[in-house]
Amino acid sequence: MMAEQNTAAPRRTALMVVTWAWVGLPFAYGVYQLLLKLGPLFGG
Amino acid sequence: MPTYYSFMPEDGQILKNSTSGGFLSRARSVAPPTWSRWLVPPAALSVHLSIGQAYAWSVFKPALEEALHLSGTQSALPFQLGIVMLGLSAAFGGPLVERNGPRWAMFVSTVCFSLGFLIAALGVATGQYWLVVFGYGIVGGIGLGIGYISPVSTLMKWFPDRPGMATGIAIMGFGGGALIASPWSAQMLSSFGTTTGGIATAFVVHGVVYAIFMSLGVFLIRVPKDGWRPAGWTPPETAGRALITTANVSARNAIRTPQFWCLWIVLCFNVTAGIGILEKAAPMITNFFANTSTPVSVSAAAGFVALLSLANMAGRLAWSSASDAIGRKNMYRVYLGVGALLYLVITLAGDSASFVFILCAMGILSFYGGGFATAPAYLKDLFGTYQVGAIHGRLLTAWSTAGVLGPLIVNAIADSQEAAGKTGPALYTTSLYIMIALLAIGFVANELIRPVNPKYHEPPVTEAPEKNIAAVPQGGS
Fold this sequence. Notes:
The complex is a heterodimer.
Chain A: H1 2-38
Chain B: E1 3-8, E2 13-18, H1 40-51, H2 61-68, H3 72-100, H4 102-126, H5 129-149, H6 152-158, H7 163-192, H8 196-220, H9 251-254, H10 258-279, H11 281-288, H12 298-326, H13 328-349, H14 354-383, H15 388-395, H16 397-419, H17 429-447, E3 469-471
Parallel strand pairs in B: 1-3
Antiparallel strand pairs in B: 1-2
């Protein structure tokens, strides 16, 4: 029981990191592409 | 074997669901005690970031027009039909989503959205354009509507302390979907080519990748156990905030209340005001400053459009989260009241300063996004979580109406002013005053919203029909 609890926490953290990266990385790519378009508006 | 009962007064009957239901059943998606609620937003985002692709359809238009010899109107058909189907499937599919749960809904959305791309690929490859319209517009459109409402009430059950923030994250994802798809789809077309074979290959890749990406949501989504609460959180006293109810109203009863229709007007006019600028942003800023010493270039106008997209997205998360602190009614007072003032500033400032125009437009677009994202939490305050997903689906018909109304007003007036020989801000002055009037009407409608009459409330469940009942879920997710 104790061993199960000891392994559950790192597994949950790993799942959290993977799932947020799954959606966060494509989103960051989209925002980055958007920011590239802002240059001309501010004279870049 | 334990048996679950869900009460669906919408149908006037009690439905019986066995726990032996398949993987997609609600019973199988109940979270274990150790499950973190912070795993639910990525599940919602995997669906919303995907279906948000719809707003990047324009990337495919020039290629389709050239390869299949289509007019601009014809190439827009799959998108337009998709948005109509979004509204219809959200409105009419809501009760099904409530009954079967978010995992089932996300699965249906994944299948329909991906299958839509595959059917469209077949249509392009065989030169049968009707298949593209049917696949992307009808089949894919059902995926849009079911996917849009699939995580809404589940998120609010996991985040009863911050419902505005929770739905804001998901609905921000819908805005973010086009940001990802637009450069990605363009890159794919340049790699595969814009022949029928190239477009069909791009559609197949879209279908497969979105199926994999959305599957995360299907596997990850969990509903909380009945009565679950965040650790250390107790429901606040409702006396201070009369609009927040602890009762529940069914979807069928909700549309009989004046509150629903007031909120429908609020959302419709707030969206109309935002979409009027969003849809014509690039030509609007170019025309506005055409007669000045510093006209706006085409690339700067594209940057302005990008800035508005950013404001729209940020508003979805920021304002919706703020509504958790200041209350939904106050938040909509800001959207509608300050939004009208910003429109007035644009009208009065004319072409005197471009930064004033840009700042005001950003504010309006952030309120536009905020209005979308705050609506589910407003519905929850008024009608409870019981069938809030289905009620939200029906409210989205306001979006469909505004999608026609906003561009129609701005385009028709700009065209007529141009025909009359006017230039610069004069092309838009009348439209801007109309938007101010619509926002003022929306403001009044928001002021008219009062707590729902208890005669519409669902009776509390006091007696279990069988001895071996494990749980009596309070409606859907």
